[in-house]
Amino acid sequence: MLSQIQAIITTISLLDVLDILLVAAVLYRLYVMIKDTRALALLKGLIMLLIATLVSKWLGLNVIFWILQKTLTVVMVALPVVFQPELRRALEQLGRGKMFKKYMLLNEEETESLLDHMVKAVAILARNKIGALIVVERDTGLNDYIETGIKVDGLVSSEFLVNLFIPNTPLHDGAAVLRGNRIIAAGCLLPLTEDRSLNKELGTRHRAAIGVSEQTDAAVIVVSEETGIVSVAQGGKLTRFSDATELKDNLRPLFAAKNGAPAALTNLFNFNWRQ
Fold first, then answer.
1. Which CATH architecture has domain 108-256?
2. Which residues on neighbouring strands pair with residue 239, listed in sequence order?
3. Domain boundaries, the chain
4. DSSP state, 114?
């Protein structure tokens, strides 16, 4: 056994190692893109289907093997439709040369100032039960959605953000898109999620936040107009926050991550936004 392993090692060239590393890097990036999304669960289901097909063939269960084989054929044809958001995201990143690019960074002073203004604005909006949608652009460009709104291109401030969502103003009914420390556009239209398993109590604002987070890597801050509850949608998942400090800590990596990895959003219930 040892001699066989040594023989295999001697046949491996430098190009083989490079080939393996490149494939591993691409597979890792694909995993990161679908991690914590519905696509990961679908991929697990596909793997289970493949395993069941191989086992049925090995056991000689011809009818079951035939059914599973035909099912796999249909699934393979349907994959581009099922994974459409993930495929679109991958092609967008590849087209912009961002497949392996780290997220946009700000220096520490700019980051803290930006977060202070954002958290202060969200607190005011939540306390007064003013609905809001704030989209934080990351690697995937949001120009498609920016074009549906009104170009602003202004420096982020708490007063500016709050004023955008005041009821009965021209830009209040839509999303504000942030790129770095600037508000690029307001009154933007976002795609609604097609996930029918969501709580029926979630309104259009929350479904739009989840929808754009499914199709891009953006993080979306949502303030409920009915309850004043603050949530963040990322990767197709919605997380509620009630602690201003923890919200700030979880948003910080979006602007100043050292390794480009998104922060894990956790459920927090200890702080009353209406205080």
1. 3-Layer(aba) Sandwich (3.40)
2. 232
3. 2-95, 108-256
4. H
pLDDT for residue 104 is more than 90:
no
Torsion of CA 81, 143, 32, 235, to 10 degrees: -80
Range scoring the smallest mean pLDDT among 23-32, 74-83, 175-184: 74-83
Closest by CA position to 254, among listed 34, 103, 108: 103
Tokens of 48: 């289970």
Distance from C-alpha of 37 to C-alpha of 78, rounded to nearest angstrom: 18
Q: Is residue 41 predicted with pLDDT exceeding 70?
A: no
**Does the structure show a pLDDT above 70 at 52?**
yes
Report the relative pairing of strands 132-136 and 219-223 from DSSP bridges. Answer: antiparallel
Continuous segment of H or E residues that includes residue 98: none
CA-based nearest residue to 123, from 91, 162, 165: 162
Question: Which residue's entry shows tokens 């999620």?
Answer: 193
Look over the chain and give the mean of its residue pLDDT values, rounded to a whole number: 78
Compute and round to an integer the Cα radius of gyration of the chain.
23
The greatest distance separating any two alpha carbons of the chain, rounded to the nearest whole angstrom, comes to 78
Measured CA to CA, the distance from residue 264 to residue 219 in angstroms comes to: 12
CA triplet 203, 179, 213: central angle to 5 degrees?
Answer: 35
